[in-house]
């Protein structure tokens, strides 16, 4: 009885890590980067989708801002204005994070090309040493989980008023059930007709998806890049720890040790350079994340403390959770990056350096000293991100919350 030969396992590629962010960007009409193996450029279709969504989003932004201005001028609808202000902040940041990809596309292209070039080769043994499969699973867990959270967020906000109307009309049989817009704003045309109402509802729903996808696509791109950077730092640490010293054992042992060490030093320098480029490319989106999330959590928290209905509170809770998770994950990944970069210094100490040549050991000291200065995510020049940043974020948010409560009272 013959058995079928086992099919070889497909090797993992760089694009397996980046597939979900690219899909999200394509729904926005953006081709985020060009890689070594994929030279796809933005087509006319992608450009048309991008222009339509950006124009529609800006129109929605202006209409919401007009509502806030009119409410402030007439000294009315304070609570509803706070809710709309939260939407406005969300729109501004979502659009800026999308446009950042356009402004820094050349730098993003260079970063992706460099990361693809140092990605582990297709050799199964080499990929096993890098533990690529483990890091890919971690990447998919976080990127898919975060993307699903933001999809739940946009579905909740786009369909909330529709579900609310259907329940009141057909379940509770309320004679006062009235259909409303998903987001409060002024309207450029009358909403009394079905056509005008449906058109306005559709445009608002599309605008809601555009800014939400703008947030999510930028963040999951950052997560995918950081997980790969952490993978490389961890691999470097394992290689240093497991380095077998040949000096004094074989002929030309010192030259062999020196050659391997030079390769590892060059690899370390490459990783340090890539980390700097990561901060240059994503520094502004990271800063926007912290500023916007602080305001959003503040506005949402204020609305949840003034006695709104249970269904509205549940709707706000989804947004609150999404914003908190967004900031937490950024701090979490930056903390992992800090620990991974510091582990290089520990690896130098833990390796079998006692048997090495003195000249070899002097080079190790230089590596260890450089690795003791940890690398982390930086929100431009204003903020070095770590788990301690989460505490600062909550403190700043609470201060904004107290200001709004005072204004309301």
From TrEMBL:
Instruction: List the record's Gene Ontology CC terms alphabetically.
Output: plasma membrane
Taxonomy of origin reads:
Eukaryota, Metazoa, Ecdysozoa, Arthropoda, Hexapoda
Q: Tell me if Transport is a UniProt keyword of this record.
A: no
Which keywords accompany this UniProt record?
Answer: Cell membrane, Membrane, Olfaction, Receptor, Sensory transduction, Transducer, Transmembrane, Transmembrane helix
Which residue ranges run through the membrane? 45-72, 84-103, 147-167, 281-300, 312-330
Q: What compartments host this protein?
A: Cell membrane
Q: How does it sit in the membrane?
A: Multi-pass membrane protein
* Predominant localisation class: membrane
* Subunit-level organization: Interacts with Orco. Complexes exist early in the endomembrane system in olfactory sensory neurons (OSNs), coupling these complexes to the conserved ciliary trafficking pathway.
The Gene Ontology biological process annotation of the record reads: signal transduction
Protein family membership = Belongs to the insect chemoreceptor superfamily. Heteromeric odorant receptor channel (TC 1.A.69) family.
Protein name, UniProt field: Odorant receptor
GO molecular function terms listed in the Swiss-Prot or TrEMBL record: odorant binding; olfactory receptor activity
């Amino acid at each position: 009885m013959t058995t079928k030969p086992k099919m070889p396992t497909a090797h993992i590629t760089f694009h397996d890590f980046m597939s979900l962010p690219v899909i999200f960007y394509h729904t926005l009409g953006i081709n985020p980067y060009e890689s070594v193996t994929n030279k796809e450029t933005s087509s006319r279709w992608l450009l048309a989708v991008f222009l339509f969504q950006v124009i529609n989003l800006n129109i929605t932004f202006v209409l919401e801002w007009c509502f806030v201005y009119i409410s402030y001028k007439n000294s009315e609808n304070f609570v509803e204005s706070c809710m709309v202000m939260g939407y406005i902040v969300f729109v501004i940041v979502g659009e800026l994070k999308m446009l950042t990809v356009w402004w820094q596309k050349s730098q993003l292209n260079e970063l992706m090309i460099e990361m693809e070039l140092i990605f582990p080769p297709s050799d199964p043994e080499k990929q096993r040493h890098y533990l690529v499969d483990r890091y890919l699973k971690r990447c998919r867990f976080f990127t898919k989980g975060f993307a699903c959270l933001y999809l739940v967020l946009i579905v909740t906000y786009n369909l909330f008023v529709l579900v609310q109307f259907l329940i009141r009309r057909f379940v509770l049989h309320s004679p006062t059930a009235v259909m409303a817009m998903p987001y409060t704003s002024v309207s450029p045309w009358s909403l009394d007709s079905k056509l005008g109402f449906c058109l306005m509802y559709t445009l608002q729903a599309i605008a809601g998806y555009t800014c939400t996808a703008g947030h999510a696509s930028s963040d999951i791109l950052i997560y995918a890049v950081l997980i790969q950077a952490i993978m490389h730092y961890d691999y470097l640490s394992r290689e240093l720890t497991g380095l077998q010293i040949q000096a004094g054992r074989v002929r030309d042992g010192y030259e062999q040790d020196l050659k391997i060490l030079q390769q590892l030093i060059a690899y370390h320098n490459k990783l340090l350079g890539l980390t700097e480029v990561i901060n240059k490319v994503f520094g502004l989106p990271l800063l926007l994340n912290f500023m916007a999330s602080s305001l959003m959590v503040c506005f949402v928290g204020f609305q949840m403390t003034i006695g709104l209905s249970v269904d509205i509170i549940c709707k706000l809770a989804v947004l609150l959770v999404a914003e908190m998770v967004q900031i937490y994950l950024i701090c979490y990944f930056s903390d992992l990056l800090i620990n991974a970069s510091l582990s290089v210094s520990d690896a130098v100490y833990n390796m079998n350096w006692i048997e090495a040549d003195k000249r070899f050991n002097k080079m190790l000291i230089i590596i260890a000293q450089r690795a003791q200065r940890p690398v982390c995510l930086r929100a431009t020049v204003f903020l070095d991100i770590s788990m301690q940043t989460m505490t600062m974020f909550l403190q700043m948010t609470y201060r904004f919350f107290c200001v709004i409560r005072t204004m309301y009272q």
